[in-house]
Write a structure and sequence with these properties.
The chain has 6 helices and 7 strands; from the N terminus they run βαβαβαβαβαββα. By secondary structure, the chain is an alpha/beta fold. The chain has one domain: fumarase (Alpha-Beta Barrel), CATH 3.20.130. The radius of gyration is 15 Å and the shape is globular. InterPro entries: Fe-S_hydro-lyase_TtdB-typ_cat, Fe-S_hydroAse_TtdB_cat_sf.
């Protein structure tokens, strides 16, 4: 089923999504990859403030290429989500409502998704140039020294994703295999 949602994402929207839904996101999302997640985790260990509010926000696991002239961002494809699995449960427990990446997630992340009524979306790998057309604004807001791994605030319009793990723990990667076997 195709759905349109606003970001930040409400609890109601997150709970209404099901594994396999095609979703178009409009609103503000954030980017963060390995190095940024490590810094946020270390900040939490030291009881320091995070550079972004987690509650109801969506983090896109992406490091863009340089922007072409007249564009807010370069190619913007997803990176492998499992590299953030060490850090994701803590961020989900702080209210992170959605994550966008590609690939499977650990059981600890899946448990945290269910525990917090969150959702894991997949963006299509290899389609970074096309995905970048949905990004209307991009601004580095933290960890500028990390270059492409800095945290960015993005404004997106009809950004296409697929629900992989929904708030009830249904996992498209598992259900699709079972359906294919039939």
């Amino acid at each position: 089923m195709d759905k349109k949602i606003q970001a930040p994402i409400s609890n109601e929207d997150a709970n209404s999504l099901r594994a396999g839904d095609y979703v178009y996101i409009t609103g503000t999302i954030y980017t963060a990859r390995d190095a940024a997640h490590k810094r946020m985790y270390e900040a939490l260990e030291k009881n320091q403030q995070l550079p972004i509010e987690m509650a109801n926000n969506i983090i896109y696991y992406m490091g863009p290429s340089p922007a072409r002239e007249g564009r807010p961002i370069g190619s913007a494809g997803p990176t492998t989500a499992s590299r953030m699995d060490k850090y994701a449960p803590k961020l989900l427990d702080l209210g992170l409502k959605g994550m966008i990446g590609k690939g499977k997630r650990s059981q600890a992340v899946r448990d945290a998704i269910v525990r917090n009524g969150s959702v894991y979306f997949a963006a299509i790998g290899g389609a970074g140039a096309i995905l970048s057309k949905c990004i209307k604004k991009s601004e580095v807001i933290a960890y500028d020294d990390l270059g492409t791994e800095a945290i960015r605030k993005l404004y997106v319009e009809d950004f296409p994703v697929i629900v992989v793990i929904d708030s009830e723990g249904n996992n498209l990667y598992e259900t699709a295999i079972e359906k294919y076997k039939e």
